[in-house]
């Protein structure tokens, strides 16, 4: 498992989580997957490092239980 490093630029995770929850509520369940896909692509463009993006995708996938 990769050790998480603190990121001073991400100082208010709670506010970011609240904004994400609010956005998900505003788009509704039917559009949530589309919204999250678009958000991931926008964030990936900001990161700009393909290897880092792939590592983060793998980490996220590993943290979600497989579909039944």
Question: How would you summarize the topology of this molecule?
Answer:
Layout (H helix, E strand, L loop, with lengths): L12 H15 L1 H19 L2 H13 L6
Task: State the gist of this model.
The protein has 3 helices and no strands.
Question: What are the segments in which pLDDT stays under 50 over at least 5 consecutive residues?
Answer: none
How would you characterize the largest beta sheet?
none
Tally the helices: 3
Give me the count of strands. 0
Distance between the termini: 24 Å
Structural Rg: 14 Å
| Overall pLDDT metric | 88
SSE string: HHH
Specify the overall morphology: globular
Strand-pairing-aware structural class: mainly alpha
- The amount of beta strand, in percent, is under 5%
The residue fraction in helices comes out at: 55-70%
């Amino acid at each position: 498992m990769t050790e998480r490093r603190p990121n001073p630029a991400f100082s208010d995770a709670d506010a970011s989580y609240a904004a994400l929850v609010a956005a998900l509520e505003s788009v509704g369940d039917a559009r949530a997957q589309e919204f999250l896909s678009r958000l991931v692509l926008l964030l990936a463009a900001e990161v700009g490092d393909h290897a880092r993006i792939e590592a983060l995708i793998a980490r996220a996938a590993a943290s979600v239980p497989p579909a039944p």
